[in-house]
Amino acid sequence: MKPIEEKPLKSATLFDALIPIAVLICLLGAAVYLFGDDSSSGPNQIALLFATFAAALIGLKNGYTWKKLEDAMIEGITLSLGAILILLMVGALIGTWLLSGTVPTLIYYGLQIINPSWFYAASCLICGIVAMSIGSSWTTAATIGVALLGVASGLGLEPTVTAGAVISGAYFGDKLSPLSETTNLAPAVAGADLFEHIHHMLWTTVPSFVIALVIFVFMGFNATAAGEAGQIDEITSILQQNFNIGLEMLVPLIVLLVLAIRKMPAFPAISIGAVIGALWALLFQSDLIANQIDVTQGEFVGYFKLIWTTFFDGFTISTGDAKMDSLLSGGGMSGMLTTTWLIMTALMFGAIMEKTGLLDIFVKSILKIAKSTGSLIASTIATCFGTNIIAADQYIAIVVPGRMFKEEYKKRGLKPVNLSRTLEDGGTITSPLIPWNTCGAYMQSVLLINPFDYALYAFFNLINPFLAVIYAYLGIKILRIKPKQTA
């Protein structure tokens, strides 16, 4: 029996590439219009699935077999499994840290020491320092970020602005940390040295962060009168009534930070942090747990069941104050399942777009008009941002444009660090601003604020790409390959 001969593949056209994009934009717009802030809880996933089907149909038309398209989707999902494992364990960590009193303690002390007039700037700076130390914007947002939002609630400050400050700081620190995955990925794709890449990023990253801090300082001055002493006293009183508050409650956080600094991979480090949170709850929050457990099967079983439930379904408390109940309840792996679904559908769509060559169409079209160095770098940033929108993942937004533009940078005599820095300026930085992007979906799941709402206040993430383009057109810190001298 003769093997079935595969049909020759047809080259995709610009019209082909625009069809799934048009489907995605129309359906995402309809999802936001019909469902509002709930669009990420299912409607966006359906939009991504139908856009994936549209891209698959284009692929079938151009000669790809369903098996190849299916393999591409499976490979795309496989790439996200590491992030999904981290995401699920972060849910468990938030649950156990609420029960253990770690997050309530951070909120309590934050209310004592942070003044409303410089709260936004302090939040940004704290998250920047922590993220730089551990190399993870995700972990920073899920721990320090969650606590800072609680402090903002107590001070009567805007949660959307606080989220913007958290995102700004977390991504600044993540971007400059040699422990960060994206900071290692970008120079690897571009062919640059890691520490040369970090040094080159300072020129666009630090000024952007300083400008963001100045804006947050001015916004804080305008928000000075928002917090009321009586309200803060009421919140701290509720925290003390329901939790044992003390510096020892911060041990789970300290352990997690130490593990991250010692370069332990994120999943086991966060898992250990979650387990220590559960142990700390048993050691220090016995009164709280006693009020929560079901003793019909025995006290020991009740304790065990509550801890187990906290891992998979989070923690819920009833303080008599609805706002505080919302603030001090949450977490659990189940709370991350919607985000997991969104990540999987987003990466399916991105994988199909890359496999069928539809992403490549846009890049080739861009290169036709990118004549100068400034326009080339601006086009790279635009492509990274567009890939974040289309493929919905920051890793794809670094790898795909990096592979496609690498030779062009080399032809024009530009050092690889120019490309690696640009991949971060356009890919890493913009990823949390898009609700259906894996980073945007994650941030919404832990901060409970829609990226469309906090995006206007993530000043570092907004300023950095524009400053990079300005540098490019002015020729500031654009390094060129020196010609080899002949003997």
**Largest sheet properties:** none
What gyration radius follows from the Cα positions, in whole Å? 24 Å
Report, as a whole number of angstroms, the end-to-end distance: 64 Å
Class inferred from helices and paired strands:
mainly alpha
Q: In terms of per-residue confidence, which ranges show pLDDT below 50 for 5 or more consecutive residues?
A: none
Net shape: globular
Looking at how many chains there are and whether they match, the oligomeric state comes to single chain
Percent in helix: over 70%
Number of helices: 24
Q: Could you give the order of the helices and strands? A: HHHHHHHHHHHHHHHHHHHHHHHH
Number of separate domains: 2
What average pLDDT do the residues reach?
84
User: Which range does the strand content fall in?
Assistant: under 5%
What is the total tally of β strands? Answer: 0
Task: Sum this structure up briefly.
With 487 residues, the chain is mainly α. It is built from 24 helices and no strands.
What does this structure look like?
The protein has helices at residues 14-35, 43-61, 66-79, 81-100, 102-113, 119-134, 137-155, 159-176, 181-190, 194-222, 229-242, 251-261, 266-284, 286-292, 299-313, 322-328, 337-355, 358-367, 373-390, 394-411, 416-428, 438-447, 451-454, 459-474. The protein has 487 residues and is mainly α. The protein folds into 2 domains: 38-81 and 336-474, no CATH class; 92-330, no CATH class. Helix 3 (66-79) crosses helix 17 (337-355), helix 8 runs antiparallel to helix 10 (194-222) and helix 12 runs antiparallel to helix 13. It is globular, with a radius of gyration of 24 Å. The N and C termini lie far apart (64 Å). The model has no long low-confidence stretch (mean pLDDT 84).
